[in-house]
Automatic annotation (TrEMBL):
It comes from the Bacteria. This is Putative arsenate reductase ArsC. Gene3D superfamilies: 3.40.50.2300, Corynebacterium glutamicum thioredoxin-dependent arsenate reductase, N-terminal domain. GO terms for biological process: response to arsenic-containing substance. Keywords: Arsenical resistance. The keyword Kinase does not apply. Residues 85-210 form the Phosphotyrosine protein phosphatase I domain. The keyword Flavoprotein does not apply. Pfam families: LMWPc (PF01451), Phosphatase-like_N (PF21234).
Length: 216
């Protein structure tokens, strides 16, 4: 299988995109057409191309985001769903609060819940303070990356947690929405970020309890 050729990619990037397309086709073969997979991969690449600080990582980011979007679309279209609740955390830049919340959700719920995050205006990198205070709890969010949300991702979510994105947050009927009022860690010293972190963990634990999921 070959990914669509693009004039703006280096030889190494094009090879990486082709490899990504092959992996996605293996994962979603029989669920989506090759054309759909390619379209999602290319549009995911375009989401990051204008703000990526390390261009060589773009194909990997595109593949990860396309995989998430295709998983969401498969659920929305009823092509696959394993019964696990899907929780989506949304904030403005997807660099602090929503990433910490996702980290705690994955840490405490494991494979019992599907967790995603996104931002209305995604930043360039995860905030160093958020990475540091989460590492203090043994949770590594340094490999995460700021990303937008898309319609299929929001539509696939069962619970949407918003954190300060206001009117930019998407509203779809039939979803459970919660607004978590939390200070933006970007504006705080490290002790303040720790306080936000601890507040987020308490809220995630309560959320899991409401979903009937035992927190580790």
């Amino acid at each position: 299988m070959s990914a669509p050729q693009r004039d703006d990619l280096s030889v190494d990037q094009q090879l990486a995109m082709t490899t990504a397309a092959t992996r996605l086709a293996t994962r979603f073969g029989g669920v989506f057409s090759v054309e759909t997979i390619d379209r999602f991969l290319v549009s995911s690449y375009d989401e990051f191309a204008g703000r990526a600080t390390i261009p060589n990582f773009l194909p990997l980011l595109a593949e990860r985001f396309a995989r998430q979007r295709l998983e969401a679309l498969a659920k929305v279209e009823g092509k696959t769903h394993d019964g696990r609740p899907v929780v989506l955390f949304l904030c403005v830049h997807n660099t602090g609060r929503s990433q910490m919340a996702l980290g705690f959700l994955q840490h405490h719920a494991g494979e019992s819940v599907v967790g995603w995050s996104g931002g209305s205006r995604p930043g360039e990198a995860i905030e160093a303070g958020a990475v540091a205070v989460m590492a203090e709890r043994g949770i590594d969010i340094a490999q995460e990356y700021p990303k937008p949300w898309t319609d299929e991702i929001v539509r696939a979510a069962d619970v949407v947690i918003t954190m300060g994105c206001g009117d930019a947050c998407p509203i779809f009927p039939g979803k459970r929405y919660e607004e978590w009022e939390l200070a933006d860690p970007a504006d705080l010293e490290l002790d303040g970020v720790r306080a936000v972190r601890d507040d987020i963990e308490r809220r995630v634990r309560r959320l899991l309890d409401s979903l009937g999921v035992a927190a580790a």
